């Protein structure tokens, strides 16, 4: 295929810019995305452990390589060489398939993320993006839904109650938070007029959607924490009650694939937030206004990476700062707060867009509505988590409860023989009934 002339190279990629690359360039893009994700995972693990250790006044990894930079690689080699233990009663086919279903969709999602504008690679003008689709954003939602199958099947096939509960928790959590995440995208689609990632980046040439659509941005930030199964929403892996959750029975490379999928999803969610709300690969306003060439050539890759790592640091910061929420708080926030607010916000955005298309001046009105909606959303979330999340007081227990009711038979504590040993005689004589009557009569 002949390279395009410089005069015909578009400044911003669009849907027509894809599907014209030679085979070696397509393979190079796929390989570059794969290497980028693997290196991002290794570096994210190191940054997370170093940052959290600094927050907790510890040292963190500092043995493998300079400053401990090779610690993630050492952990990967260690996991690969460990014994692969498969419990006897598991469904072996599904048990092996589940980690693959979690890791592969995580890699596929990144193919539609734009890294930069159109550049020249060995004489060929090509966008710095794997590919683009008219419904590219929906591909990310579809792949994240496929990844949940891996978690659910891992919990079901392990034949363990802890793993099964972790898988069920993850399915319920993703259903509630992915619906809210999809609703937060609708406002972006209405403003951009497309679901293509390159078209959404082009629509933010002057103002980022994080400013115009602030409530949608806040909802997405909350839902992406729920989507990633990380603190404070890591209920599927709650160590305190589920030992480790859906991957309790996994070891060696199978466990490593779940670990890999979690950190790749971390990078994918950060890249999607950058693309939809922070202008994608475009430079921030102070740089783009002062420097005319900030959004041309290979420089946009730098701005894109800086934005991604700011989001990754945000994830790490939350993990080192916030406690895990209760499960009822988690589900209530998704179903009773994020979804209704998202639907109401979509109606407002659609109305504003319709008025604007008819020629009405709604600029200042829209700004006030955005601020009001953001305040309402923040207040509702605070109300549900701080006040509405309190559990009702438990009913008083019966005075004479049967210890063997509804569970394993337990001998009473006042039995003469407890655990096969005779009860020891009391060293001090018990108090008389008179003293007890005096105390209780004073209370009543």
Give your account of this protein's structure.
It comes from Actinomadura parmotrematis. The chain is mostly helical and about 450 residues long. It has one domain. It contains 15 helices and 4 strands. It has helices at about 25-55, 70-80, 90-110, 135-155, 160-190, 195-200, 210, 215-225, 240, 250-275, 285-290, 300-320, 325-355, 365-390, 435-444, and strands at about 115-120, 125-130, 415-420, 420. It has a two-stranded antiparallel sheet. It has a two-stranded antiparallel ribbon with strand order 3-4. α3 packs antiparallel against α4, α4 (about 135-155) runs antiparallel to α5 and α5 packs parallel to α13 (about 325-355).
Short structural description:
By secondary structure, the chain is mostly helical. It is built from 15 helices and four strands.
What is the number of domains?
1
Gross geometry:
globular
Per DSSP, what share of the residues sits in E-state strands of 2 or more residues? Answer: under 5%
* Backbone CA Rg: 28 Å
Broad structural category: mainly alpha
Q: Describe the largest sheet.
A: 2 strands, antiparallel
Low-confidence stretches: 1-9, 429-444
Mean residue pLDDT = 79
Describe the secondary-structure layout:
Layout: H1 23-55, H2 71-81, H3 92-109, E1 116-121, E2 124-128, H4 136-157, H5 161-192, H6 197-202, H7 209-212, H8 214-227, H9 239-242, H10 252-277, H11 285-290, H12 299-321, H13 327-357, H14 363-388, E3 417-418, E4 421-422, H15 433-443
Antiparallel strand pairs: 1-2, 3-4
Helix pairs in contact: 1-10, 1-12, 2-10, 3-4, 3-10, 4-5, 5-8, 5-13, 8-10, 8-13, 10-12, 13-14
